[in-house]
Amino acid sequence: MNIRKAIPSDFDAVWEIFSQVIKTGDTYVFNPDTPKKDLEKHWFAAYMETYVLEENSEILGTYIIKPNQIDLGNHIANCSYMVSLNAQGKGVGRKLCEHSLDIAKQRGFEAIQFNIVISTNTAAVALWKKYGFEIIGTTPKGFRHAKLGLVDTYIMYKDLKK
């Protein structure tokens, strides 16, 4: 598995992953009917870095890293990760997380904060905890889950200086 910065020719493969993941309406706030043209602002905007994980020339996962806030809040990173449905459970998320921690440190970020982790996404919550992220807040009924209705969301945080 190789992780590298995304290039323009990766757009369609990233779209396939993005559209698969959001279609379920259970892990991301994006409307399941988000049009392909919106991928640029959500995953390829100028203020973020986009990475892909590939194996045998197939893109299996992607993540973005960006400042969590502007100006006086830009010392904390924010990341989002997506794994192709056919690659889930194969360590892709783990590799993306490890890579993003290294990149965040290289870029001088002091911490990473996830602003909205769906509480029912137990695999993601467990993975983030394994890598030292802590739940520092809960938004009651912060997400309209496609099947479960209103569910809590977490704010998760990892200090990179420890």
From TrEMBL:
It is an enzyme of class 2 (transferase). It comes from Mariniflexile aquimaris. Its EC number is 2.3.-.-. GO terms for molecular function: acyltransferase activity. Residues 1-161 form the N-acetyltransferase domain. This is GNAT family N-acetyltransferase. It holds the Pfam family Acetyltransf_1. Keywords: Acyltransferase, Transferase.
